[in-house]
């Protein structure tokens, strides 16, 4: 790793993009976001990039996978060759949204991450900084990106890089009518995401109709979704529209889609394919125009393997995926959220709070938060109701933290059997263990696999399944 001298650029970025009209636009937006001190070199293909890497040192490589065919027929082989020549540079692959397997193959070949076209300058700058810290790329860390971070967006609160990427995704896909598949643990704000997509899209003037597939009995779900014709069954005295008809022209949000009965999944698939529906007890069909957004806190690939979710329905719905990161993966947002909730509920309860004591803030930031934002929100609301005002201190926190789900002090451990910890689903625990192991080894999958006593191919298979859930991430 070379030392910089006066007059040298703060960072060198190699952009591999074969489109002579598109490449200058990408380079310009990256310079605007990363700063004038970053020198960007453009290569039209894999061969030219390899020649440049043999002669010069770069800090970051941004490679469009579709431009590497002149170096190798397989994009992952081309990436592997460029990675070997890169001298430890931060390598980011760029692919279109349909090439999930190609992107995963690039990461298997040594890329640190991938992004989906089109490249957004501010979002890319934030991602580079985040990746540089995660992978210990000190050269890339010398770049100081000029990123305008938003601390709130369409109902979301958070200024972390992870949330900036979510905001950018929502802004990019809100205008489309294609289905959106939202994944994320319970409490991460999947309903907020659906509302944001509707509110920032062209269907905002029409209705957003939400239906929770887990909260409605199976024998009533079809009538709730598609409606009922008069006389269809005892008690059906009038025609009644279902959620899909009520949302005509607007957005239909199917929360907890993984809990939908298989027999109804086939009818939903037909509705998505034809844009028509029949009310229960009705022989005719009705044309409906809705944008469908669905969400689940389950692993859809696991549901498919267990024959609990139709694979053809999944791929019909999984057009524009968004994955919401858990709160433990964005600790910088914890106090931003906590202060927001404190001000909100203090106003509701007509009380005055000055903030959080430093030891309380440190404890909240380091907590696991298995219930995510919802758990933090409930805790702050409980604090406001139970306390009279002033600064939130540790005794106040301990008195309000009746759940002890991720917020507990080392000095006052929870006795065995006194409070029960929340149990995450097996796939979520497995994902956390594997990703934490990879992070602890600086992104080296082989070392992480050796520590976990599994093969690297097992990790790649599992990550590919997760990638299908969080395709832009």
From TrEMBL:
Which residues are recorded as modified (4-aspartylphosphate)? 64
Q: Where is the Response regulatory domain?
A: 12-132
User: Which InterPro entries does UniProt cross-reference here?
Assistant: AAA+_ATPase, AAA_lid_NorR, CheY-like_superfamily, Homeodomain-like_sf, HTH_Fis, P-loop_NTPase, Sig_transdc_resp-reg_receiver, Sigma_54_int
Chaperone as a keyword?
A: no
Q: Which SUPFAM superfamilies does this chain map to? A: CheY-like, Homeodomain-like, P-loop containing nucleoside triphosphate hydrolases
Domain Sigma-54 factor interaction per the UniProt entry, residue ranges: 156-385
Q: Answer whether the UniProt record assigns the keyword DNA-binding to this protein.
A: yes
PROSITE patterns named among the record's database cross-references: RESPONSE_REGULATORY, SIGMA54_INTERACT_2, SIGMA54_INTERACT_3, SIGMA54_INTERACT_4
Q: What are the UniProt keywords, alphabetically?
A: Activator, ATP-binding, DNA-binding, Nucleotide-binding, Phosphoprotein, Transcription, Transcription regulation, Two-component regulatory system
Pfam families on file: AAA_lid_14, HTH_8, Response_reg, Sigma54_activat
Could you identify this protein by its name? Sigma-54-dependent Fis family transcriptional regulator
| Species in which this protein is naturally found | Devosia oryziradicis
């Amino acid at each position: 790793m070379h030392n910089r001298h006066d007059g040298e650029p703060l960072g060198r970025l190699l952009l591999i993009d074969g489109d002579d009209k598109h490449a200058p636009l990408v380079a310009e937006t990256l310079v605007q976001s990363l700063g004038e001190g970053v020198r960007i070199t453009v290569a039209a293909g894999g061969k030219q990039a390899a020649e440049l890497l043999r002669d010069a040192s770069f800090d970051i490589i941004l490679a469009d996978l579709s431009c590497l065919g002149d170096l190798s027929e397989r994009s992952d082989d081309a990436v592997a060759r460029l990675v070997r020549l890169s001298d430890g540079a931060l390598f980011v692959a760029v692919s279109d949204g349909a090439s999930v397997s190609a992107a995963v193959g690039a990461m298997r070949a040594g890329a640190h991450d991938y992004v989906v076209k089109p490249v957004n300058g501010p979002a890319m700058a934030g991602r580079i900084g985040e990746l540089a810290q995660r992978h210990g790329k000190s050269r890339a860390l010398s770049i100081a990106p000029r990123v305008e971070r938003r601390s709130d967006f369409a109902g979301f609160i958070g200024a972390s890089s992870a949330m900036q990427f979510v905001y950018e995704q929502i802004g990019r896909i809100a205008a489309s009518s294609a289905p959106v598949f939202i994944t994320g643990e319970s409490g991460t704000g999947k309903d907020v995401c659906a509302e944001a997509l509707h509110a920032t899209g062209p269907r905002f003037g029409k209705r957003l109709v939400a239906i929770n597939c887990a909260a409605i009995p199976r024998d009533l779900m079809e009538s709730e979704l598609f409606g009922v014709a008069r006389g269809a069954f005892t008690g059906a005295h009038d025609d009644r529209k279902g959620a899909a008809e009520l949302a005509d022209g607007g957005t239909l949000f199917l929360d907890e889609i993984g809990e939908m009965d298989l027999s109804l999944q086939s009818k939903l698939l037909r509705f998505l394919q034809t844009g028509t529906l029949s009310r229960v007890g009705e022989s005719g069909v009705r044309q409906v125009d809705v944008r469908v957004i669905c969400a689940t806190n389950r692993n859809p690939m696991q549901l498919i393997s267990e024959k609990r979710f139709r694979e053809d329905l999944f791929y019909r719905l999984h057009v524009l995926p968004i994955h919401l990161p858990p709160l433990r993966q964005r600790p910088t947002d914890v106090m931003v959220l906590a202060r927001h909730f404190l001000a909100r509920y203090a106003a509701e309860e007509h009380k005055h709070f000055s903030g959080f004591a430093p030891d309380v803030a440190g404890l909240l930031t380091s907590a696991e938060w298995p219930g995510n934002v919802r758990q933090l929100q409930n805790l702050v609301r409980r604090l406001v109701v139970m306390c009279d005002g002033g600064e939130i201190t540790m005794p106040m926190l301990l008195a309000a933290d009746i759940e002890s789900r991720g917020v507990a002090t080392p000095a006052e451990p929870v006795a065995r059997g006194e409070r029960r910890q929340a149990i995450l689903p097996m796939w979520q625990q497995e994902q956390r263990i594997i990703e934490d192991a990879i992070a602890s080894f600086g992104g080296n999958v082989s070392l992480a696999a050796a520590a976990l006593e599994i093969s690297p191919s097992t990790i790649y298979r599992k990550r590919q399944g997760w990638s299908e859930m969080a395709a832009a991430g």
